[in-house]
Structure formats: C-alpha cells, structure tokens
Amino acid sequence: MKILKTIDLSKTYGKGESKVKALKNINIEIEKGKFTSIIGPSGSGKSTLLHCMAGLDDITSGKVLLDDKDISTLSEEKLSQLRRRKFGFIFQSFNLIPVVDVYENITLPVSLDSKNVDKNYVYEIIEILGLKDKIKKFPNELSGGQQQRVAIARALVNKPDIIFADEPTGNLDSKTTQEVINLLKLCVEKFGQTLIMITHNNEIAKMADVCIKVQDGKVLEQ
Ligand SMILES: Nc1ncnc2c1ncn2[C@@H]1O[C@H](COP(=O)(O)OP(=O)(O)OP(=O)(O)O)[C@@H](O)[C@H]1O
C-alpha cells in the first residue's frame, strides 16, 4: 500500500535571474510501513523533496497525496495540525530544548497537542532507545548519539504514520551512526511506521527497503 505519492511535483525557488528549479516533475510513491532512503549529491534537491512531502515547504506545481488526499492545498493551520498528528521529524541538528530534561524533551510534542501522555508507550520507547538512565539529564549532559536518540524518541512519541529524517546521522561518527540507524529501523518495524530518510551515505542508503536516487532535481531511479 502506498501512503504518500507525489505527482509531477515541481519546486522553484526565487524569481527571474535568481530562479532555481530545485525539483522537476517528481513522481514517486512511498510504501507504507517501509524504510525509504533518498540519496543524491549535495544540492540535488533531497531536502527540498522531503520538505515538500512533509508539508514544510509550499510547492510550485503538482500534487502531494497522503493516503490519496492532496495535502498541498491545505491551509497552514490544517497543515501544521497534520504535521503534529501524523508526522515525526528528525534533523541533523538534534533541535532539543536545552532548558528541559530528556523526559520533557521527548513528551513535549504530545503535551503541546493537549493530549494525554501514554506513559507506558513513552517508557517502552525510552527502554528500546537505551535512555532509561538519562531521563533526568539535560541535553548538554549527553553525547551526540544520545541526543539523537532523544530526538528519535521525540519523533516517535506521537505515534506518527510517517517519520521524516533529514541526514539524522550527519553529525555522528560511523559507529554511532550504525547504532542510531539500527535503533530507528527497530522502532519503525516494531511500531509499523513509515520512515523516509535522506542520506549522503551509500551504506546507510543500502539498509533501506527502497532507495530513491535524486540528481539535479529529478529522480534517477526508485
Ligand atoms: N530557500 C532556498 N532559496 C533558494 N534556493 C534554495 C533554497 N533552498 C534550496 N535551494 C536550492 O535548491 C537546490 C536544492 O537544494 P536542497 O537543499 O534541496 O539540496 P540537497 O540535495 O538537500 O543538498 P544537501 O545534500 O547539500 O543538503 C539547490 O540548488 C539549492 O541551492
């Protein structure tokens, strides 16, 4: 089953002389419950594609279908609700909140949406990600790998349908990278989520179920 599709998706930045065609008629389909990697050279349009699929960036033409519904025409308010409820995000810079502890960093997306925190589920995630003895720590007391594991826990806490990850291991050494990717895969498998991840790294791209190659704003192969 396909959870997300793009139809002739194009994105152009700027106007006139400074116009950049970042995406040119992209047609891709993302399989539900699978791990899809997006690989390509710097500037090829990977981040733009991810942002357009996740409703973080407006598109110039085409469609983005989530469960066959076009999300590119939604209002900013509806889009932000959709992102909060259905999507999880992990970025290269962990984007943790420095003044609250690990537990609060993880549970904040749920409390922001004024839903009750499912404590059993939160502790299950914390356990899997090996953060049990870290929940009272603050982000600056953690290593990079530990901080990224907190960011993964935070992305999972809403039980999102899709997790969008933009170079999540870009700031980590190769051993920690393997650990983090393995944990991410484990969580996705365990909770049946769909993972879409950008990477520069061929080895990581190969760990995915599906690999999409992007070059010069176009999809080379899926
Ligand atoms: N906000 C923006 N304004 C203007 N041009 C942009 C903007 N964001 C990206 N671009 C341009 O769009 C093209 C695609 O950029 P994008 O960031 O999607 O590539 P990428 O494959 O993710 O690169 P990297 O691997 O270096 O992060 C590039 O030519 C970039 O310069």
Automatic annotation (TrEMBL):
<dbReference type="GO" id="GO:0005524">
    <property type="term" value="F:ATP binding"/>
</dbReference>
<keyword id="KW-0547">Nucleotide-binding</keyword>
<dbReference type="InterPro" id="IPR027417">
    <property type="entry name" value="P-loop_NTPase"/>
</dbReference>
<feature type="domain" description="ABC transporter">
    <location>
        <begin position="4"/>
        <end position="222"/>
    </location>
</feature>
<dbReference type="Pfam" id="PF00005">
    <property type="entry name" value="ABC_tran"/>
</dbReference>
<dbReference type="InterPro" id="IPR017871">
    <property type="entry name" value="ABC_transporter-like_CS"/>
</dbReference>
<dbReference type="InterPro" id="IPR017911">
    <property type="entry name" value="MacB-like_ATP-bd"/>
</dbReference>
<dbReference type="InterPro" id="IPR003593">
    <property type="entry name" value="AAA+_ATPase"/>
</dbReference>
<dbReference type="InterPro" id="IPR003439">
    <property type="entry name" value="ABC_transporter-like_ATP-bd"/>
</dbReference>
<comment type="similarity">
    <text>Belongs to the ABC transporter superfamily.</text>
</comment>
<protein>
    <submittedName>
        <fullName>ABC transporter ATP-binding protein</fullName>
    </submittedName>
</protein>
<keyword id="KW-0067">ATP-binding</keyword>
<keyword id="KW-0813">Transport</keyword>
